[in-house]
Recover the amino acids of this structure.
C-alpha cells in the first residue's frame, strides 16, 4: 500500500474536496492493498452525523453512514421495503455488512478481475490502456449496457433494490445540496469507463431517499456460484401488484448483468395490464434482453436472466 | 501516528504508520496474535474481531480509525481454564482441524448469537418481520463470512447449535 496522510473530518463541509473519503473501508482498503487506489490523503468521515434512518415524506431518508446491517434490520425497511432488506442481507458477509455503509455501497467498484489486477491494462483504471476482460475470463461480466471499452458489472445488491424502489441520492457539494434520482446517478461506460457516476470531484453523498413504499409483493432473487457470500451472476429485484387477475404495476431492476443497477421501464410497461402468464413474462423478457450480448464466458447469463425474471414474476403474482 | 486503542478492556498506545490495519496492529505491534491473517482482503474471516459488540474484519480496518471503539479479540473471550461457552463447545465438538480459522470463527459466532438475540433476520429467514428462529440453515448462512479450509463445517455448526440451543441438535449422537 502506498503511504497516505490520514485526516478525520469534523463536519460535512470539512469532508468536501478534502481527499479520498473513507467510511466502512471494506472496498477502498482492499483496492489500496491491491494498488488500484493510491490516494495521497484519506479523509475519515465515520464520526459525522450521517447515521440516522428518518421518516421522510411517507418514505425514508437513510444517512450515508448507516451500515448495511443497520439498514437491513430496520423495522421499517423489513416491513415496507422487503426487497431492500433482502438485497442487503444477500450481500457480502455479516462482518462486511457491519462495516459497509450506504454511501460506500453505492460507490463500490467492479469486481472485474482485470480491474483489480494492476498488471493488466484496464480502461476503467487507465483510460485508453485497453481491456483485458474482452476475450478473457468473463463469467462476472455484463450482457447489457457494456461498451467496446469496458464490460465490467456493478457489484452491488443494495443499489439494485434501490433502483427498483425509485430511490434518490442526496449529494452535498461546495455549491450546496442536490438530489439526483438513482436512475440518473450511474453513467454507462461508453468511451470513459473511469467515470461511473454523476458525482463531481469533491462532492459527498449524504443520504439516500426512498419514496413511499409501492403496493404489492416484493422480493430479491440472487443467483450466484455458491449459496452465500458471493457476488451475483444474475439478480432480480421485484415489486409487483396484481389486481383483478392482471398485473397492475411492476417495478423491476437487475444486478450482475450491467455496468449499473439495470432498469428498463419498457419491460414494466409490457407487464402492466396483462395477465401474469408465461407468455406475458416471456414477452417482457424479450424486451429486457433485446440487445443483450454475451462475451463467451458469460453467455449463460442471457437464458439465466430470462429464467430468473420469470421465476420472480411467477413468485410475486402467484395466487395474488 | 498515535492512536489509543481499547482492546479486551485494556488501553494501548499505538505508534504506527497510517497504513497499519487493526489486524497488523494487534498481531505485530501489541502481541495479540490470536487474530489470524488469512487472505488480508476480507474474504476468509480469520481476522474477525468484535468492535463495539459487532463482528468486523480487522484486516479491512485502519487501526487509526478505531480510537474510542471497544475491541474484543479471541484473547478477551476466555482463557485456558475459563473458556467461553463457544470456545468450550468448539473443543468438545472438534470444530476445527488445523485451527487457523478458529479464533475468527468463535469471534464471529459470539457476535452472531447476539445478532439473533437482537432479532436480526438473515437472507434465509422466511418472514423478515418475525423474530428469527435459529436453525442449522440459519447458522450456515450467518457464518458464511468465515471459511474453513479443512472443511470442519459440520462440527462448527454443531458447536454453535449446542450453545444456541437449536432444536434438533444431535446431542443423542454424541
Amino acid at each position: 500500500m502506498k503511504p497516505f496522510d490520514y485526516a478525520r473530518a469534523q463536519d460535512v463541509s470539512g469532508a468536501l474536496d478534502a481527499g479520498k473519503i473513507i467510511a466502512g473501508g471494506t472496498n477502498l482498503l482492499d483496492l489500496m492493498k491491491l494498488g488500484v487506489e493510491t490516494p495521497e490523503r484519506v479523509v475519515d468521515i465515520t464520526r459525522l452525523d450521517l447515521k440516522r434512518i428518518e421518516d421522510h415524506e411517507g418514505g425514508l431518508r437513510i444517512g450515508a453512514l448507516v451500515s448495511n446491517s443497520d439498514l437491513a434490520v430496520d423495522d421499517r425497511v423489513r416491513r415496507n421495503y422487503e426487497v431492500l432488506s433482502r438485497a442487503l442481507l444477500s450481500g457480502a458477509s455479516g462482518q462486511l455488512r457491519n462495516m459497509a455503509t450506504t454511501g460506500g455501497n453505492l460507490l463500490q467498484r467492479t469486481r472485474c478481475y482485470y480491474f483489480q489486477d494492476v498488471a493488466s491494462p484496464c480502461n476503467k483504471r487507465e483510460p485508453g490502456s485497453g481491456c483485458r476482460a474482452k476475450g478473457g475470463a468473463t463469467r462476472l461480466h455484463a450482457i447489457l449496457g457494456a461498451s467496446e471499452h469496458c464490460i465490467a458489472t456493478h457489484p452491488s445488491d443494495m443499489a439494485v433494490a434501490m433502483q427498483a424502489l425509485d430511490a434518490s441520492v442526496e449529494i452535498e457539494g461546495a455549491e450546496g445540496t442536490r438530489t439526483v434520482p438513482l436512475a440518473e446517478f450511474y453513467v454507462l461506460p461508453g468511451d470513459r469507463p473511469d467515470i461511473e457516476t454523476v458525482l463531481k470531484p469533491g462532492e459527498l453523498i449524504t443520504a439516500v431517499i426512498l419514496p413511499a413504499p409501492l403496493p404489492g409483493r416484493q422480493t430479491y432473487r440472487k443467483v450466484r456460484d455458491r449459496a452465500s457470500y458471493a457476488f451475483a451472476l444474475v439478480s432480480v429485484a421485484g415489486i409487483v401488484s396484481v389486481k383483478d387477475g392482471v398485473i397492475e404495476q411492476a417495478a423491476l431492476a437487475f444486478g450482475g448483468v450491467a455496468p449499473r443497477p439495470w432498469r428498463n421501464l419498457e419491460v414494466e410497461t409490457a407487464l402492466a395490464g396483462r395477465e401474469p402468464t408465461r407468455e406475458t413474462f416471456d414477452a417482457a423478457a424479450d424486451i429486457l434482453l433485446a440487445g443483450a450480448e454475451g462475451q463467451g464466458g458469460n453467455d449463460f447469463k442471457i437464458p439465466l436472466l430470462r429464467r430468473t425474471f420469470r421465476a420472480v414474476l411467477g413468485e410475486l403474482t402467484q395466487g395474488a | 501516528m498515535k492512536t489509543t486503542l481499547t482492546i479486551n478492556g485494556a488501553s494501548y498506545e499505538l505508534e504506527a504508520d497510517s497504513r497499519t490495519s487493526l489486524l497488523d496492529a494487534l498481531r505485530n505491534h501489541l502481541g495479540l496474535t490470536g487474530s489470524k491473517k488469512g487472505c488480508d482482503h476480507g474474504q476468509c474471516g480469520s481476522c474477525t474481531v468484535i468492535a463495539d459488540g459487532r463482528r468486523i474484519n480487522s484486516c479491512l480496518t485502519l487501526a487509526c480509525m478505531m480510537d474510542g471503539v471497544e475491541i474484543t479479540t479471541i484473547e478477551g473471550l476466555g482463557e485456558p481454564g475459563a473458556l467461553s461457552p463457544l470456545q468450550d463447545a468448539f473443543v468438545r465438538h472438534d470444530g476445527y482441524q488445523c485451527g487457523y480459522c478458529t479464533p475468527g470463527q468463535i469471534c464471529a459466532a459470539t457476535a452472531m448469537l447476539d445478532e439473533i438475540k437482537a432479532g436480526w433476520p438473515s437472507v434465509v429467514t422466511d418472514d423478515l418481520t418475525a423474530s428469527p428462529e435459529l436453525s442449522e440453515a440459519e447458522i450456515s448462512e450467518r457464518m458464511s463470512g468465515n471459511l474453513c479450509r479443512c472443511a470442519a463445517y459440520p462440527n462448527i455448526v454443531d458447536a454453535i447449535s449446542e450453545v444456541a440451543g437449536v432444536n434438533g441438535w444431535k446431542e443423542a449422537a454424541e
Summary: Chain A has a mean pLDDT of 98. The longest helix of chain A spans residues 301-317.
